UniProtKB/TrEMBL annotation:
Gene3D superfamilies: 1.25.10.90
UniProt-recorded name of the protein: DNA alkylation repair enzyme
InterPro entries in UniProt: ARM-type_fold, DNA_alkylation
Domain of life from the UniProt record: Bacteria
Pfam families named among the record's database cross-references: DNA_alkylation (PF08713)
């Protein structure tokens, strides 16, 4: 099945989009050039018909050396397919270590709406990646939080986690800054307290302020005040 899907991906690939996409995901050498709408359509089709067989094969057939689109498709199917919580956790355990760029991480995390249905269960699951040494495992954790847990019930826990995430990876720092900016837009009072006193490194702290100031949902007065908090 994986072989047939690879052939379909090759047919969907566009050389011009491949060249464009490669510039956005440095370090990813094997790119076919398939656009996201086409990938999502293919993933939904697999999820409705052959998700069990596909995911079983993907566990062994797809790895970090596979094409960017193959890994992306794998993660998307995992989000669309119907399965039990336990089965999805096992599937994620196999998928997350294969993530090797921000695009796969973010696109898949944003689509994992199942986390919003059983928040406590999935919050507990996600914590396993909090202290990983692998950059994109930690980013998976942070982006999942910003996508599904910036709400009344979890805001304080999320801010505490962001404050104490100290991985040196660039894509972790950027994810933390992004998450802080989303927290500020939704919960400015609580997030302002974090910005006034935190343990984030200077790069992440300043990048978070930059991202907040780029938001059209933050007033000019707030942006001026936040600029004074830069280190």
């Amino acid at each position: 099945m994986i072989k047939e899907i690879r052939e379909e991906l090759d047919q969907l690939g566009e050389e011009s989009y491949k060249q464009f996409n490669q510039k956005l995901i440095p370090g990813t050498d094997h790119v076919i050039g398939v656009r996201m709408p086409a990938l999502r359509k293919l993933a939904k089709g697999i999820a409705k018909t052959d998700s069990k067989q596909y995911l079983e094969e993907a566990q062994t057939e797809i790895d970090e050396r596979s094409a960017h689109e193959e890994i992306m498709l794998y993660g998307l199917v995992l989000g669309y397919a119907k399965m039990s919580i336990e089965q999805r956790m096992q599937a994620l355990d196999m998928f997350v270590p294969k993530i090797h760029n921000w695009a796969v991480c973010d696109s898949c995390c944003m689509g994992y709406k199942f986390m919003e249905k059983e928040q406590e269960v999935w919050f507990s699951y996600l914590r396993k990646y909090q202290n990983s040494s692998r950059e994109f495992e930690v980013r998976f954790f942070i982006v999942s939080l910003l996508a599904h847990y910036i709400n009344e019930a979890y805001i304080e826990q999320v801010l505490e986690i962001l404050n104490h995430t100290s991985h040196e990876g660039y894509y972790v720092k950027m994810a933390v800054a992004w998450a802080v900016s989303v927290c500020y837009v939704k919960f400015p009072i609580q997030t302002k307290r974090l910005l006034l006193a935190n343990e984030m490194d200077d790069f992440t702290h300043n990048k978070a302020i930059q991202k907040i100031r780029e938001s059209y949902r933050v007033s000019r007065e707030e942006k001026v005040e936040l600029n004074r908090l830069k280190r």
